[in-house]
Amino acid sequence: MKKTRVFFYILIICSTISVNGCGQQKVEKQNYTAFTLQPDNTLVQEEVCAILTKNNELVVAWVDRKVGSNEKFISFTATYNNQKKWYPVTTYDPKDYIWTGNPALSQDDSGNIYLVAMSNNYDGKNLPTNGIFELSHTSDGGKTWSNWTRIVKNTAEFKDMADKPTLISKGNGELYLSYINFNSNKEDVLNSKGEVFFVKSKDKGETWSNKLIIDNKRNWKPSSMIKVMMSGGADLGEQGPSLSFFKDRLLLSYGSYQNNGIWLASSDDDGISFSVKKISDLKIKTPVTKIYTNDSNLIVIIVYEAHDVGNAYYLQSIDGGKTFSKELLSKKGSIVSGLIDNDKMLNFIWNEKDKDNIDTKYMEVKDNKVIVKSFYSENKINPNFFIGAYQDVLVDRNNNLHAFWIDWSQKGGKLIYAKLK
Fold first, then answer.
1. β partners of residue 314
2. Is the pLDDT of residue 124 over 60?
3. Which range has highest mean pLDDT (37-41, 94-98, 141-145, 255-259)?
4. Rounded mean pLDDT of 79-96?
5. Residue 291: which pLDDT band, with cuts at 50, 70 and 90?
6. Is the pLDDT assigned to residue 345 strictly greater than 70?
7. Strands, E, within 247-357: which ranges?
8. What's the pTM value of the predicted model, to 2 decimals?
9. For residue 253, what are the β-bridge partners?
């Protein structure tokens, strides 16, 4: 890894952050050491995800793009020896065209780690069709990985591209996958829509259940493609699903296109059926959600615009999902990730963009204290450049903060990793 010395700013906010504004702020500048994880300078990075393993190690996956082309790959690595060393980066070429790889990672109770990524059939002329997900897994902490296998390929009935997978796992190889399927109608674009699909596997991804489809148009109708039809949504359907376990329940959050709010689906029978309710009237045109839970009654759902800078929020429930409060993270935020750590502290990381710069910010929230850390770069960027990069944050057992983000001040975007106390 290449090491660089950079700066961040810490903002200590004395009152709880809210949609009405923040309290008095104190700014301090400190040093931290950052690393670039991908040593191949012919590649630039666009998206990243990371998990902390049961052995307190890090596993990271991202999308690489060949400089000067649209050729994309999935790359991944992991730490070992108490986070002191990294395995060599593995780069996988799915062969099919990658519209956006959207990698997702998960670990089951037996220590198996799973990586899912997206590719699409593509003829080089028309839109990508028949969304495909590919899966690989490791049982030795990321030292070696299985061959990639294609999973959950959409049929001719559900054409066009799949997107934004969310993956969780438990037991020994029990996987739960949800994603958005864009069922485009090229003759009538206004009737094109997104649908949230849900599938599960009990054998490490070898076989999968029939799809459950969250759809706002129809009622419950059992069929060979089992469909969970849930009220709500809008003409363009649903968007931005996220999965989490919560005690003995399975939770699935998602948004609805065209400002129709945020929804929470809940299953008490391991994903066979779901109940659903609207939890917020937030008006976001293309909402993405990310849900986080812990072993208490705390549920946190991040909400932001899929491909635009705007208001980014988190919804918080302290009563197991009966009620949710709304808090504003940023008025110019995009691509937010987070977690709830062992101390029940909320941790968030996101992009902010102004006229000339992109700033990656991290915020922690506990009780009435809020701390914001800014990974600010004084290097100018192309203000018209699309900031469709994910970032991620982890807190290990020793309360070290591990942050991953894309530095857009570097040509094409470079994946950065930093460890902070």
1. 302, 327
2. no
3. 141-145
4. 91
5. very high
6. yes
7. 249-256, 262-267, 275-280, 287-293, 299-305, 310-317, 325-340, 346-353
8. 0.85
9. 242, 264
Percent of the chain with pLDDT over 70: 71
The three-state secondary structure class of 13 is strand
What residues contact 272, with CB distance under 8 A and at least 6 apart? none
Stretch among 254-258, 325-329, 379-383, 400-404 having the lowest mean pLDDT: 379-383
Could you tell me which residues are beta bridge partners of residue 27? Answer: 11
What per-residue string of b and e applies to 124-142 under the rule 16 or more CB within 10 Å gives b? eeeebbbbbbbbbbbeebb
Cα 153 to Cα 418: distance, rounded to the nearest angstrom = 36
Separation between Cα atoms, residue 143 and residue 170, nearest integer Å: 21
Cα separation of 184 and 214, whole Å? Answer: 16
Q: Which residue has the tokens 């759902």?
A: 301
CA distance 84 to 99: 34
> Tokens 């946190």 sit at which residue?
300
Q: How many Cβ atoms from other residues are within 10 Å of residue 357's Cβ? A: 16
279 versus 21: the higher-pLDDT residue is 279
Our measurement of the distance from residue 96's CA atom to the centroid of its chain's CA atoms, rounded to an integer in Å, reads 22
Contact between 212 and 274 under an 8 Å Cβ cutoff? The reply is yes
Q: Distances from the Cα of 390 to the Cαs of 64, 103, 217, 246, 349, in angstroms?
A: 13, 10, 31, 25, 9
Tokens in use for 408? Answer: 């857009």
How far is CA 135 from its chain centroid?
16
Question: What's the distance, Cα to Cα, between the start and end of the chain in Å?
Answer: 20
pLDDT score of 120: 65
Alpha carbon 6 to its chain's center: 26
pLDDT for res 158: 42
Q: How far apart are CA 131 and CA 384, in angstroms?
A: 29
Sign of CA dihedral 296, 170, 102, 262: negative
What is the rounded average pLDDT of the residues 6-33?
Answer: 44
21 three-state secondary structure: strand
Q: Please state the φ and ψ torsions of residue 64, each to the nearest 5 degrees.
A: -105, 145
- Yes or no: say if 199 and 228 are a contact pair by the CB < 8 Å rule: no
Tally of CB atoms within 10 A around 118: 26
Dihedral angle sign, alpha carbons of residues 47, 352, 257, 215: positive
Identify the DSSP state of 148.
P
**Closest to 15 in 3D by CA, of 301, 364, 367:** 367
Average pLDDT of the residues in 203-229: 57
Mean confidence (pLDDT) of the chain = 77
Is 16 exposed, middle or buried, given 0-12, 13-18 or 19+ CB atoms closer than 10 A? Answer: middle
